[in-house]
Amino acid sequence: MPVRTLRQINLLPLWAREAIYRRLIPSQILKDHGIDPVLLRNQAGEPVVTFCCPSGTGSVRTEVRQRPGDRDCILFLQLADTAMGQLEVLLLIVNDLRSPRFHVDSEGGLPTKFGTVRRNIPEEVRAMEAGLAPGQVRKGLRISRMLLPLMEDFTASLGRDAFFLEPLAYHNAVLFEQHGFGYVSGKKLMEWIDREFHPGGELYRRLDGSSPFRRPEHAFTIRGRSWAIHDGILGRPWGGVKMYKQVGKDAGECTFPNAVY
To answer: Residue ranges of the domains in the chain?
Structure first.
């Protein structure tokens, strides 16, 4: 019987599940960090790749670390079956562990949950000045062009023609556009954001310097807009955007023409 869902994969023996899910890890990540591609151990012989895919569930969480006790993953990828029978990317995080860390993920010892429940403003300012985008604790590894084809191959192996995700921030949505994603919902919002960040627009007028995240020059870059939106310039929380990637096809979306990161 063909395997069509994560729930069906998770009914297989553990070794078989892990053999399937390890195909989602770009080989370049393993090579660059000295991780054995077969044993999934670092150069000290420690296991550094974990798959959380309990039998009876329709989800998988893949974590790749440099050392077992590291706080930050090199790669964190969480997938799930949806109630509508779709494959969805719940969370994707990639960290360059050689880059400085900014503690935007905690404030007063409590998690910020990507800035949705609380914010560490001083660390956010430091991260922004260092070139990071909202939600990043470190620079990324720029591996999307390697990872997304693996996701497409995995999706096709399940007999599906697309997978879905909800971008965590504005910059994620624009970058996913550049990788061929289309919109299930939120395209009109993205077009409105672009229009209103132009000189004379409502969002442009709100870039009044009232906070470090609302500088007029932020209107002209993906990252600058994303920080302003993270700071609440929309007047409501970011959300309502859902995207899809069709296997082997580029949706051709562009809601920020001639964008500069």
So the answer is: 1-99+138-165, 169-261
